Amino acid sequence: MYTPKPEHKFSFGLWTIGNTGRDPFGEPVRNALTPAEIVYTIGEVGAWGVNFHDNDLIPIDATAAQAAQIKSAFRKALDDTGVIVPMATTNLFTDPAFRDGAFTSNDPQVRAYALHKTLRAIDLGAEFGAKTYVFWGGREGTETDAGKNPLDAGKWFREALNFVCEYVIDQGYGMRIALEPKPNEPRGDIYLPTVGSMLAFIETLDHSEMVGVNPEVAHEHMAGLNFVHAVAQALDAGKLFHIDLNDQSFGRYDQDFRFGAHNIKSAFFLVKLLEDNGYDNPRHFDAHAYRTSDREDVKAFARGCMRTYLILKERVAQFNADAEIQALLAEITADDGAMDAYKGAYSAEKAAALKAHTFDRIALGQRGQPYERLDQLTIELLLGVR
Ligand code: GLT
Ligand code: MN
Ligand code: MN
What we know:
Blueprint: E1 10-13, H1 14-17, H2 35-45, E2 49-53, H3 54-57, H4 64-81, E3 87-89, H5 108-127, E4 132-136, E5 141-142, H6 150-171, E6 176-180, E7 189-190, H7 195-202, E8 211-213, H8 217-222, H9 227-236, E9 243-245, H10 264-276, E10 283-285, H11 295-321, H12 323-332, H13 348-356, H14 361-365, H15 371-382
Parallel strand pairs: 1-2, 1-10, 2-3, 3-4, 4-6, 6-8, 9-10
Antiparallel strand pairs: 5-7
Helix pairs in contact: 2-4, 5-6, 9-10, 10-11
Bound molecules: 5-thio-alpha-D-glucopyranose and manganese (II) ion (2 copies).
């Protein structure tokens, strides 16, 4: 019943299933897997897609012969399992060259190298059929603003993205670009820290029509924000090209927990938003298993991400069909048409009539809303007693 199917578009990154459990305080606890081995695992748990950074697939210092060998084993694993590559991205954060950023580095050689690496990584993504190309600017930020002008940084980032868009068009790759905001980690502050800032920035690009966002649950939660509202804004703008699903407790380090592991209620409202609005782009679980997991438990982690999504999807259908809940919602959103004359587009007459209208302000302030009842019904539904 909660079996993942291709139509759900569930994907995992090579770096998520492949995560070895290394953290700033400790060494790896799980063996590294080859890209092909990760694809077989993704196939085994029933997911649809695998995403990669250039260097998840081909190590940064691989020879041409090694690259060819890795690609052919990866291709065979894709063919054997039917797993596809929906998204690719560039690692612009691990190598020491990017210690002060990639496209926003103060060093013009680093900025050029970042673009060189990205164009080659786009070719690699295209070779495996990726239709979405993600930019997560992990190092694009500062610890001190003494050394970098944020206006220069924004200008350099814009120039790089304009260049990349033209390249994608020139090559006829048919890819869309998705920008992923994060407020901090690994930099003290990362530029364009939230979905809202990214959406505003996109409108300043030459090819804004081919650029959208890749919001991540944990990233908005790290900033203490409401992820559902951020995603709604992206949907409203027609910019939700991709989504990174995971979980995170507020005010903690960058956790990347299994989807639904922590804030089950906001996960429910997120799934409701996506499903009620026909979201049909990839659902990527950008998460990793607890450091305590062994390789077998990593599969439980991956299955858990998808299973929780599908259970929540079923709960959404239940919520939408629940007579008591729907009656409350009808009451909450009731409209007797008395204000129809003032709705819609502006006209001078409408404005004059609205200004002349007498409102019973005291009565308006006495109206309550049954949100306690509705929220409790939602909780009971989620807890399985409805
Ligand atoms: C990295 C980061 C993620 C980004 C990935 C894409 S890599 O793991 O924490 O949020 O989506 O570069
Ligand atoms: Mn993250
Ligand atoms: Mn992410």
